[in-house]
Amino acid sequence: MADILTFNDLKKHFVIGQEGFLRREPITVKAVDGISFAVQEGETFGLVGESGSGKSTVAYTTIGMYRPTTGTIRFRDKDLFADKKRPLALRKQIQIVFQDPGSSLNPRRTVAQILALPLRLHRPQENVLQQTAQLLDMVELTLEYMHKYPQTLSGGEKQMVAIARALATEPSFVILDEPTSALDVSIQGKIINLIMRLQREFNLTYLFITHDLSLMRNVASRVAIMYLGKICEIADAVEFFRTPYHPYTQMLLASIPVLSEEEEALKPRKTVSRGEIPSPVNIPSGCSFHLRCPRHMDICSVVDPVMVEVEAGHSVRCHLFPPS
Amino acid sequence: MDDAPLLEIKDLHVHFHVYGGILRVLDGVSFVVHRGEKVGLVGETGCGKTTTMKATLRVLPMPPARIPGGQILFQGQDLLKMRDDRLRRVRGRGISMIFQDPTAALNPVFTIGQQIRAVVRHSTEKRLSRSQIHDRMIQPIREVALPDPERMLGSYPIQLSGGMRQRVCIAMALVADPKLLIADEPGTSLDVTIQDQILRLLGRLVEEKDLSVILITHTLGIVRQLTDRVYVMYAGTMVEVAGTEELFRNPLHPYTHGLMEAVPRLTGGGVSDGIPGRIPNYLHPPPGCRFHPRCPHVMDVCRQEKPGFYRVSGDHEVACFLYRDKERSA
Amino acid sequence: MGEVIPARHSHPTISLEQVKLMERQTRRENLGRAWYKFSRNSLSLVGAAMVLLVLLLAIFAPLVAPYPEHVKPFTDFANAKLPPSWAHPFGTDEIGRDILSRSIFGFRYALWMGVVVLSLVVPPGVLLGLVAGYFQGTRIDTIIMRITDIFLAVPPLILALAIASILKPNLSNAMMAVSLMWWPWYTRLVYGLASTLRNEYFVVSAEVSGASTAHILFREILPNVISPIFTKISLDMGWVIIIGSTLSFVGLGVQPPEPGLGTMVASGAKYLPDQWWIAVFPALAIVLIVLGFNLLGDGLRDMLGAEEI
Q1: By the CB < 8 Å criterion, does A186 face chain B?
Q2: What is the pLDDT confidence band of residue A245, given thresholds at 50, 70 and 90?
Q3: Which of B:237-276 have CB within 8 Å of A?
Q4: A35: domain CATH number?
Q5: CA of A182: which chain B residue's CA is closest?
Q6: What CATH topology corresponds to C14-304?
């Protein structure tokens, strides 16, 4: 399958202040610190990480909120940051659904007004009202919603409107930034199934960002785990859950609260969660996970491991898997 | 062992008086916690689980809230009728609480030491010496496995990570040796690896100290990990109660069933559509069973009558007409 | 039947007329809800009534005032300093003019002052605040906000006094002076709100779609700051009128014989306490207008607040 979005050694550092009295040294947060991967046409690529892992920074850089410090993101064969201002034709292709439906819809605009903006910008020759109606229908909302304000909608309905807005430009690539983590579990399923149905119908490619591994198991075709700005493991979803290699992945899996014995059996037994994610201002030397790692070795605190393809399509960045 | 329950809530009603009428938020909730028992209270946003606990601690804002009926018996005494000075003694020493968001639960302008000292002072009438106070402050900090207790006392909340703050909150809840600990979504605002640590810590402390616990959460997996018995709440009513293992093996109420189906499984197999519709408006709750507009098995009787609790097996009770005929006498 | 919107899912087909009908319905509902929020506090209604009364009196002053000619140069020493009576409910002043008539005309000057000052002040103040807030952290932000700070650092009344005294003392110079010191408050207010709103996801989402800066400023951010702006305008009406009256009181605003309320209080102050009505009734007129706008402002804040009832 063809690659649709390619990250090449992407780094995004933020300067958050200065320290030192005589020589002022900038304090940098290395939110994303050199990631490379490619999302393939038509797949759902799961990007999993805890807070501070940099997964949201990846999303916001992709949609053009930030410019990369170094490295590139290519959409098909175009560099997303070739121009100073991203051209409309590229904006149309890459859209996002945010985590917090409360903040992502303007409380002072009706659903119709919210949906009209991308329609007017990207499909100017079409009938806005007609298209608005079709978008609502697409996300299974009735036309009565057209003139409602967001505060009268439930969380799930708000997220449906946010999905309709993202699809209004007829994109080919959509970033889903924790689209259901603010919702109750009884409506999560409805939103997820809507998202998956729309993917089939419109041949969309998803970058699905979440901290919920159980959800990933059910929707993603491939999964990457991020920790402190770097990817530590990347694999096909089935393979990933069958044989997780990286100690951090194992710790994540072991920490999931599950509902049944069958699921319990899938969790790594030996690993127990310990320690907390260090501040991204002071990233530990060597492998950034070594302080929490149950299997750390001397080399781990000194040398940062490199990504190694252990099996076809399954890569790990850990000294337990040295390059051959 | 004393057979009387530690906490017993009987037919509790809570109303909120607002514009347009009365929100009937709790509609006859009953709830029992025995000594040394770990009980889960599960339900989704707005189902009334937090209101129930606030009513128990008598921290509901009144008005707009009113309690038109019900009893909350703690060690046989009705908390709703208790005088304020005695109630203050129950809070903290009898019942203490830890909250979902440890950042909001700690005062940012005082050190951890100052905040724990205040709790220690209030925990007893006796005048304590300096070293006694110090011991009582250090002890719980050790118990929650915080590193370097002495330095911890001098730090401000902002200097600690989210997981450490949650541990501090747990330590503060344990200072007065309470009999009952109410944990409202412990650790759910934290990352999953940290949440796991907090839950294991809670589990260990509960075993060691022979505490009774009420665990309030919307995450079913957490309940399964930590409790002996589970109550499921929907729209201000209790819909099911059972031993934890029994409930997860054999959920009976259509709501419980739908809720469990809706959780994505690590075993895969796709995600179910969940439960159609949304939680009812408390101003005009549906007559009869409050779940009937969303229920896939709705019958005529559900629209008219409120179901009672039917005991299906040993400790498994369900408020659903589907099980009216399957009732067994205990 | 008009144009028909096709439905692919289980919803019934619906015509464009029906959609428009629903839009009208929603509008009516929103108006109803707004009125409910406003009228929940009876003091807002009192404020609105007071403002309406002042407004009507000012507009129809020549018809309402019993002695409209007393507003022009006029003397009647025979009837000077008469206490309140049926003929002169507020009494007469030191040269025999009817105080009620002059107060009614005084409302005209007060309102005129408020309306002119605020319409000079609000648009540039709000625009600068929006721009600075949206471009928060850039050089544009720094330049706009430092200029604002400089203006805020000058004691307002003293600035107005200085300007009014350098230029010819009259109403339009007083208004200019007040305007010059007033706009930074709007910039500050809007800046604070806009710099928070610019990070909301709905603004980011508009940016991602490629919306113009003008759209983001006026369609996304402005509607969310309109409510505090209106509240402030209503509260400021009172303040501007007080400052205008103060300037008139010290002789830098409305010039005699024109009936500025502040001017009237100033000239009446000499006759306190014996001929109290000369100063007290114009002063009460100021109280009426200022209090009215303050209460109205509170009501507007309740009404325009986003909270769901």
Answers
A1: yes
A2: very high
A3: 248, 258-276
A4: 3.40.50.300
A5: B45
A6: MetI-like fold (1.10.3720)
